[in-house]
Structures are given as C-alpha cells and as structure tokens.
Design a protein that fits this description.
three-stranded antiparallel sheet; 3 strands; about 80 residues; alpha+beta; single chain
C-alpha cells in the first residue's frame, strides 16, 4: 500500500529573529501574518514513526530552516 502523509502541526514564529517567540500549533490555527519555519513536534514524531517502519520513503528537502537552530528540530527528529 502507498500512503501520503501531510503536515498537521507546524512551528510558528512571527519573524526570523533568533529570540522571537515560537509556538507549536495546528495548521488550522495559522494566520495570514504567521511564518511557518519548521514542522511541529507532533508531525515530526508521526513522520519519524512512519519512516522507521517504511520499506521506502521519498524525501524532498529539509523540514524547516535547518541552518538556524530553532528551526532544525523537525529535520533532526525525522532523520
């Protein structure tokens, strides 16, 4: 069977400043002014579990802005 999983929780931040406030929210809570900079912890856990049990998976780039520490957790959790 083939499955396609979508992001359902994201890491939200108002701007790219290192000390700006971040929060994990549902994609349903995203506002027009929000910046989505990484996948959220719940999505990262789900993806990691699905990848661990998969025979094969397709990956297209990092989960967030992995070069910046606050936004690298999603990519690190999935890998």
């Amino acid at each position: 069977m083939n499955y396609l999983y979508f992001i359902n929780h994201i890491l939200n931040r108002c701007c790219l400043f290192e000390k700006a406030k971040t929060k994990n929210i549902s994609v349903d809570e995203v506002k027009n002014t929000d910046k989505i900079l990484d996948i959220g912890e719940k999505t990262a856990q789900i993806f990691a579990e699905k990848i661990e049990n998969a025979a094969m998976f397709l990956w297209n780039g990092p989960a967030g802005i992995f070069e910046m520490k606050p936004f690298s957790n999603g990519t690190k959790m999935v890998t």
